[in-house]
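[audit] Reproducing an earlier prediction to check determinism. Same input, same settings, fresh worker. If the C-alpha cells differ from the archived copy the diff job will pick it up downstream; this log only records the rerun itself.
[audit] input (129 residues):
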Amino acid sequence: MVLDDGQFRFMFTARDYVRAVAFYRDGLGLPLDHDWDFGPGDAGSVFKAGGGMVEVFSPAPEAHYVKPEGVGMLLQVDDVDAWADRARGLGLTIVEEPVTQPWGQRTLRLLDPDGIVVTLFHTVPIEAT
C-alpha cells in the first residue's frame, strides 16, 4: 500500500550533473533538501518541489547515458507571467510562452538541460462558453 503521507520523488540521472543542479537550484529556485558527493558517479542532489522532490543523480563514469523520454514535470507557482520574465532573464529555454488553458490553468513550459519539459502553472477561472 502506498502511504498517503509518504514521499514522492521524481528521479533521473543527468548528462551534465552540474548544469542540471544549476537549473533546478538557480533557474527554478527549488530549495535543496540535501545532497551528497562520494566521488565520480556517486553524487546527487534532492530538491523540494511542492509536495514532492526532484532527485538528480550524477552519471557514472563510462556509463551509457539514457536520456529521460516521455516524462515531464508540473510545478505550481504564484504567477506564470512573472516566471516567464525570470526565465528569459536567466536564459532558460522556453518551449511554450504563457498560455491560458481551457481547463483553468495558465502554463509556461521550460526545457531542462536533459530535455525534460517542466511546466509551471497557476490556476485561473474557467471562462464560460
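[audit] rerun output stored. Observation attached for the diff report: The chain has a mean pLDDT of 93.
[audit] end
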